[in-house]
Amino acid sequence: MFWRIEVGEKQGSYDAAGEGVKKDIIDLGFKNRVKDVKTVQAYLLEGNLYEKDVLEICEQLLADPVTQNYSYKTPLFDESRYKVVEIAYNPGVMDPVEESAKKAIRDLGINGIRTVRTAKKYLFEGRLSDKDIHTIAENVLYNKVIQHLVKGHSNIPPEPPPYQFKLRHVELLAANDDKLKAISKNGQLFLNLDEMKEIKKYFRKLKRNPTDCELETIAQTWSEHCKHKTFRGLIEFEGRTIKNLLKNTVMKVTQELKKPWCVSVFQDNSGIIRFDEKNNICFKVETHNHPSALEPYGGAGTGIGGVIRDPLGTGLGAKPIINTDVFCFGPPDYPHKKLPKGALHPKRIMKGVVAGVRDYGNRMGIPTSNGAVLFDKDFVGNPLVFCGNVGIMPKGKSFKKTRRGDLIVVAGGRTGRDGIHGATFSSGELTHESKGTSGSAVQIGNPIQEKKLTDAILQARDKNLYNAITDCGAGGLSSAVGEMGEETGAIVYLEKVPLKYKGLNYDEIWISEAQERMVMAVSPGKIEELKDVFERENVEASVIGKFGNDGRLKLFYEGTMVCDIDMKFLHDGLPPVKRKAVWKKQIFANPPAVDKKDFTGDLLGLLSNYNITSKEWIIRQYDHEVQGGSVLKPLQGINFGPGDACITRPVLGSKKGIILGCGINPDYGKIDPYWMAASVIDEALRQIVAVGGDINRCAILDNFCWGNTNKPDRLGGLVRASQACYAIAKTYGVPFISGKDSLNNEYSTGNKTISIPPTLLISCIAVMDDISKAVSMDAKRPGNSVYLIGTTKNELGGSQYYKIRGFAGNDVPKVDAKRGKCLMNALAKAISRGCVAACHDCSDGGMSVALAEMAFAGGFGMDICLDPANASSEQNTLSDETLLFSESNTRFIAEISDENRFLKSMKGLPVWKLGHVRNNTLFTIKNRSKKTIIETDVNKLKSAWQKTFQNL
Amino acid sequence: MKKVKVIILRTAGTNCDKETAFAFGLAGASTEMVHINELAGKEKDLADYHILAIPGGFSYGDDIASGKILANELKFKIGTGLRKFIKDGKLIIGICNGFQILVKSGLLPNLSGTFSDIEATLTLNDSDKFEDRWVYLKRVRGQGPKDKCIWTKDINGIITLPVAHGEGKFMPGNADILNRLRREGLIVLEYVDETGKKRGYPYNPNGSVENVAGICDSTGRIFGLMPHPERHIDSYQHPYWTRLKQGQRGDGFLIFKNGVDFAKKHL
Question: How far is B241 from chain A (nearest CA, A)?
Answer without folding.
Answer: 9
